[in-house]
Amino acid sequence: MKVLVTGAAGYLGRGLVVPFERGGCSLRLMDVATPPPSLPSLESRHEVVVGDVADLEAVRVAVRGVDGIVIAHMAPREPNSYAVPTLPFDVNVKGTANLFHAAVENGVKRVVLISSTAAPIAHGKSEHGQDVPHTALPKSRGMYGLTKALQEIIAEQYAREHGMGVAALRVGWVMDQDSLVNKYGTRVTRYSTMLTDRRDIGEVARLWLEHSALGYEVFNVMSTSESMVASDVQHTCDFLGWRPGYPFDNLPRG
Known about the structure:
Blueprint: E1 2-6, H1 11-16, H2 18-22, E2 26-31, E3 47-50, H3 56-63, E4 68-71, H4 86-105, E5 110-116, H5 142-162, E6 165-171, E7 173-175, E8 195-197, H6 198-209, E9 215-221, H7 227-230, H8 234-240
Parallel strand pairs: 1-2, 1-4, 2-3, 4-5, 5-6, 6-9, 7-8
């Protein structure tokens, strides 16, 4: 299987590709930035494409010849980057629409969208949407949540209209169990049910791309044992035959 991963040079992308590498997949890694040569998950054995997902022609080139797509790009969560819609809509929304459009043009039937608990957050009572079941429709708050909700709407429509197999993964707090450092460079010292190892996200994505189901599915994805019931992650395990590999048991509770 040849898989295109967008946002591959970012924090999530660098960990997400690990299960695909272990599974022997051929990867095409796309990012707007040239990846540093020191990154072990972006070695020369993988094809690297430098391009902007907001550029439809660049996306068409990146999609050509692949069997599946993992949409993992995101506008940077930097101060004021979500203050106005320009950048987040160009990257998150337009970029996602471009990828689905190019997928249809090239006959690509299997796609994973890395979404967020922010997409349905307004349904729940918790601050971060971790109590919302996978069956909830998009209902967001804030600019970031709005772009994630719109990504899911795009994904569902393309799956329905074009007979695709599309999964939206509503992930929690993206982390690395080994380093306990998040994408902002901050070391996490306390356990939370929302902690989600980026390699677990990649494994769920891989399992979906190798699955036979068509249509549109939503999966809540977190790594902790408490999230199985509290955050409806058990559905993901049951559907895909998955168990989290990085439960963050090395962090203190409380």
